Amino acid sequence: MRPRLLYDIKFVEEEYLTLTTLELLLESISKELRCNNGRAIVYCPTQEMTEDMATKSPRDLTWTQAMHYHGGIEDDDKKEASKSWRSGSLCKVMVGTSAFGAGIDYPNVRLVLHLYRSGSLIDYVQEAGRAGRDGCDATCVLLADQTDLEGTLATSSSGDRINQDKSQQPKVEFARFALSDGCIRLRLQHQFGWLRHCETWYCPPKADDSG
Question: Per the database record, which ranges form the Helicase C-terminal domain (predicted)?
Fold first, then answer.
């Protein structure tokens, strides 16, 4: 895990996810994207959501274009979207599913946003790890519905079905990670048996329950 990545978790009610995402794009990195040729990736759980989010760039983001990328679009459209994002000529914000990832090694990604959750913790780490590959500061933000995460854990605690269904275990593991206290980096490191201590000062304040 690169030490200059800032990990943050923000609990947002589902109805405010889109608004919060757009605000983060504007407030956190608009200067980086506009002046320093940076890029942003917004990961969504469904194909429909990627298309919806990509069309909702606010007026203040008119200097760039958000494009969408998922497994349901034609190969030529995928290539065009990826090429445009890499060049920065039209697009500096890519809104995609996990399909946008293989072979992505662009150095100047300043923000990776996750809406809801990834398919698993390892997916989340890999996707967030596409930020800051140039060694400079970058931000990885998970926007999650706390009620939804708590419901996942409650179901896992009370019902045998989910305990027997191994396909649900990644969701339970992710919910447990997102809801636990402490430094997010340390949580991930301990989960995967990586570095034993937090060697960065980039952890957000505890007031956000972000670690």
Answer: 21-173
Residue type, 43: Y
- By three-state DSSP, how is residue 170 classified? helix
Q: Which residues contact 129 (CB under 8 A, 6 or more apart)?
A: 1, 2, 5
**Phi, then psi, of 92 in degrees rounded to 5:** -120, -5
- CB neighbour list of residue 96: distance below 8 Å, 6 or more residues apart: 41, 42, 43, 44, 50, 68, 69, 70
> CA 41, CA 88: separation in Å to the nearest integer?
13
Give the E-state strand segments of the chain in sequence order.
Answer: 5-11, 39-43, 65-69, 91-96, 109-115, 138-144
How far, in Å, CA of 175 to CA of 150, rounded? 7
3 state DSSP class of 96? strand
Rounded mean pLDDT for each run of 10 residues along the chain, 211 residues in total: 85 79 69 75 91 72 76 93 87 90 83 86 91 90 90 76 69 91 86 63 48 42
Q: What are 107's two structure tokens?
A: 């150095």
Tell me how far apart the alpha carbons of residues 124 and 121 are, in angstroms, rounded to a whole number. Answer: 5
Q: Which of 167, 172, 71 is nearest to 121 (CA)?
A: 172
In the structure encoding, which two tokens stand for residue 103, read together? 């072979």
β-pair partners for 41: 94, 112
Helix (H) or strand (E) holding 17: helix 17-35
